[in-house]
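Q: A reviewer asked whether we had any structural model of the full assembly, not just the individual parts. We don't, so I'm hoping you can provide one. Inputs are below.
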Amino acid sequence: LSKSKGRNRYEFFSHAIEEQAIEKRRLIEEIRLALKLNQFVLFYQPIFDQFGLKAEKAEALIRWNHPQRGLIGPNEFIPVAEQNGLIEDIGNWVRDQAIEDAAYFYQLSGNIMQVSVNTSPLQIDPSGLWVDEWILACNKHRLPRDTMIIEVTENTLMDPDSPIQQQMQRLNHYGIDIAIDDFGVGYSSLAYLQRLDIDILKIDRSFIQHMETNESSIALVRAIITMAHHLKVKVVAEGVETEGQHKLLEQLSCDYLQGYLFAKPMPTQDFIDRYISSAALIHV
Ligand code: C2E
Ligand code: MG
Ligand code: MG
Ligand code: MG
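A: Here is a predicted structure for the entire assembly that you could use as a starting point for your response.
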């Protein structure tokens, strides 16, 4: 009896795994089609000065405008795209769209709104093509230097012998800023901060989240900010949700703030209406 039960269970699991595999293949095909049919969109979330008053930068965050399922967030398709080489095409699309948008923001307001773009390490081609294409795309839109920021996570920069290092240096040489996303949750080596010219550290939301209840979170955030400032690196706090967190971050001289307390990611046109057109009026 127990033997047949075991077999049933095995069949149940193998069936479930097979179903998952089919589901995944379907998703991959759908992502491919979505690229062709232009179903991806960028949302923008403003990044404010330390008082939460002025939008200084904006992070581009991809969404999939699915005809049946509505808006789908990146966590549901970026990891799959990374496993299947599709991240390259998606990444190229994000780059071109973000650069086009940044050029449009500049044209509308006459001021630079720095636009930050998330990058998967898998996109960074060691031969240098990836950087070449970034530079070409910026030139095509005659973008002022320093308009674009590229966000990478810590583990992208961990290995000092990786050819990615050199590519990041080339980016920096060209004037594109480099930001470390989700800072603090990756490996703990800080050596790359010395090796590379990092412009921005983005403190992971998990630290910000616990600042009001956990003394050690405050201590960590303070230490990160102090270290960054000694290295002439600016700091963004990610995921600021409460006034209490904002107050603490202001006391710690955090340079920039991003989070639902100030604004959620929004469609490009909303972002323009709220943060670009009004800026244009003030500066006339
Ligand atoms: P991330 O780069 O760390 O982006 C921040 C995420 O936190 C975003 O989620 C944003 O909507 C969310 N967020 C912002 N403020 C708050 C807050 O106050 N509270 C909370 N709970 N969440 C907040 P989203 O848009 O779902 O993006 C998730 C991740 O997907 C991003 O994390 C990034 O790693 C990745 N991603 C997004 N767009 C792209 C892209 O174009 N390319 C690549 N390779 N990855 C992307
Ligand atoms: Mg990011
Ligand atoms: Mg720089
Ligand atoms: Mg982050």
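A: Points you may want to mention in the reply: The two ends are 83 Å apart (CA to CA). Strands lie at 40-49, 55-66, 70-72, 114-118, 148-153, 177-183, 200-203, 234-237, 256-257, 266-267.
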